[in-house]
User: Fold UDP-glucose 4-epimerase from Asanoa hainanensis.
Amino acid sequence: MKVLIAGGAGFIGSTVASACIDSGITPVIVDNLVTGRAEYVRDRLFYEGDIADGALIDRIFADHPDISAVVHAAALIVVPESVAEPVRYYRENVAKSLELISHVTRNGCDRYLFSSSASIYAPGADFTVDETSALRPESPYARTKAVMEWVLEDCTNAYDLRVISLRYFNPIGADPKMRTGLQHAQPTHLLGRLITALEAGEEFRITGTDWPTRDGSGIRDFIHVWDLARAHVEALRRFDEVLPAEGSKRYDVLNLGTGTGTTVREFVAAFRRVADRPLRVSDAPSRPGDVVGSYTRTDKAAAALGWTPDYSVEDGIRHSLEWAALRPSILGE
Assistant:
């Protein structure tokens, strides 16, 4: 099997590509390297360019007519940045994605995995959600994901296209073989900020401490990026079982999480245990775009993909710390 991975030089896309390779699937990667890294696509089939470039996508399919599926992982993902730059986020995550869908369908590829986000959910009373839960995206980033899900569902009704939207919860960790990890030196998400504070000897601030959770901090479903990547491999392998080519159903969604809710305070405590170094912590107001969060019920993904996560929160923290130590030498910084 050969698959096109849009955004395959980024954190998620490159890890999915590694999982594909380890499973005997050949990834073909397209990435404009705005946030992705050339080091992550070394020795891989790689085309540098934009997903909206029709001539480029046509050339990729001409060079690789045996591509049987697309994994769409290309996106901007920083919530506070999306609040400050909504036009940029809608342009990159929606407008250009529309162009990619057009190029893919024109080239006759009808299997499409879309990287969506659990940030589109309205949390339930107990903070759990499943694929039927109400949606309430509260940041421009989250809204771009919700919009694209609606777009893709509409496209499956109009074109020869089948789509599975994979709603990610909160990825942590790195490729356990340390081939790839977070490409940014100072990531803005929780684990990245913890590592930055630890390395700099600075105080870590828990942003948002008056949410209606068991300890006042937000709640998340932290999933190891390698477990997330394995789920993509299973979705590719079982695509025609989930959405048969001759079936009436053309669109489906699957939540990818662990099924366990971890509060921010609990995560910070786990980080301290794994790092085994002093870390000062204080409370602070929530940031623009922050939400209380949620965690998923996992029955549907387990049944559809035969998949369950293998790694723990502590494993994800440990691999992230290992990657942070190796990152400068791997990326030449």
Remarks:
- The chain has a mean pLDDT of 95.
- The chain is about 40% helix and 20% strand.
- The domain at 2-180+221-259+295-310 is CATH 3.40.50.720 (Rossmann fold).
